[in-house]
Amino acid sequence: QVQLVESGGGLVRAGDSLRLSCAASARTGSSYAMGWFRRAPGKEREFVAAITRSGSMTYSSDSVKGRFTISRDNAKNTVYLQMNSLKPEDTAVYYCAADTSRINSDAHYVPYWGQGTQVTVSS
Question: Phi and psi (nearest 5°) for 44?
């Protein structure tokens, strides 16, 4: 079982950038596909972006495409979410996710989760 710890959240202004990090427990390396989801107040958890185990393929939701970039460093057991041109509607708790196979965009089918990190974007 993998343990995930997110960091990098905070309060920023619209148009700013933030980079989230998710550190996975030791020796996970490329054993897990990784992803990011978010939950805004009063809403369901929604898919943001994911990356395959090798890092060769990424995919993201239409709402963040062109603004957010997911990447990973398997040597450091860490996945990143670079968020640019942030908007107030990006305000949410962001969760790191992992699966031994491809990350499903439906959160109900994702087995491993971090505790989440708050991102707040002011207008």
Answer: -75, 160
